[in-house]
Design brief:
Layout (H helix, E strand, L loop, with lengths): L7 H6 L4 E6 L4 H8 L5 E5 L7 H14 L3 E5 L5 H9 L4 E4 L5 H11 L22 H7 L1 E6 L2 H5 L1 H5 L6 E4 L1 H7 L11 H18 L2 E6 L2 H9 L4 E4 L2 H17 L1
Parallel strand pairs: 1-2, 1-8, 2-3, 3-4, 4-5, 5-6, 6-7, 7-8
Helix pairs in contact: 2-3, 4-5
Family: Belongs to the HpcH/HpaI aldolase family.
Keywords: Lyase, Metal-binding
Protein name: 2,4-dihydroxyhept-2-ene-1,7-dioic acid aldolase
Length: about 260
């Protein structure tokens, strides 16, 4: 499914079909094994995940050890420190949460690029071994993706997608469901509004010529979203699958 991790940003920008996996646990050996399964990328969740910077650094090293998947990081916030730190650890792309406007999207792009294209500070202590290390090459090889997960972001989707230098947008389905009036993150009573929102974002991304991604609870949903016009999709997470597998084996053993 995947090619070289160095091609990840170019494939994303070309709107090629890309499938990834989500990691929330500080478990480098587990992450290393997951990175060799054939996913195009493995994204480490530094916003809601259960790992700190050392965990993120360990995960990037583990992903690169397999040499097939690109390592990405969902950063804690749209902030130059968090984005720069993730990129210095070797991430080939960042997913930036809670971006509500084109101005905020432009700021995220700037944090991802070295001058004169942006404001990223130069200090690739680890990324220099894998990405770049010259600033122009690093700028080309790093993807900037922002999340659309609020009512304000949805209203500004066209302007966000048209942001110069932005490589993709990413739907956070849980927050978007709540933003649309859902009582829970999976409330089906807002399904019609949710589906309309997905169609809107996918179309705005297509019009702007950038990638459109979404988080999915399983592979079947990922296939459905890709068929609906999304260009990349992330499947579940290590913690969810660990619990699901353990529960399934317990049921089998006690049946």
């Amino acid at each position: 499914m995947n090619t070289s991790p160095a091609d990840f940003a170019a494939r994303l920008r070309a709107r090629q079909r890309i499938i990834g996996y989500w990691v929330v646990l500080d478990n480098p050996v587990g992450t290393e094994r997951l990175a060799g399964l054939g996913y195009d990328y493995v994204c480490v969740d530094a916003q809601h995940g259960l790992l700190d910077y050392k965990g993120t650094l360990g995960a990037m090293t583990a992903i690169d050890a397999r040499g097939t998947a690109a390592g990405m990081v969902r950063v804690p916030a749209n902030d130059g420190f968090w984005i720069g730190q993730a990129l210095d650890a070797g991430a080939r792309g960042v997913i930036v949460p809670l971006v509500n406007s084109a101005e905020e999207a432009a700021a995220a792009v700037g944090y991802c690029r070295y001058p004169p294209a942006g404001v990223r500070s130069y200090g690739p202590m680890r990324s220099g071994l894998r990405v770049g290390p010259t600033p122009a090459d690093a700028n080309e090889q790093v993807a900037c993706i922002v999340m659309i997960e609020t009512a304000q972001a949805l209203a500004n989707a066209a302007e966000i997608c048209a942001t110069d230098g932005l490589d993709g947008v990413y739907i956070g389905p849980s927050d978007l469901t709540i933003a649309l009036g859902g009582r829970t993150s999976t409330d089906t009573s807002v399904a019609e509004k949710f589906d309309a929102a997905l169609a809107k974002v996918a179309e705005e991304a297509r019009t702007a010529g950038i990638a459109a991604g979404i988080h999915c609870p399983d592979g079947a949903t990922a296939a459905k979203r890709l068929a609906q016009g999304f260009t990349f999709a992330t499947v579940s997470s290590d913690l969810v699958h660990l619990e699901q597998a353990a529960a399934a084996h317990l049921r089998d053993a006690t049946a």
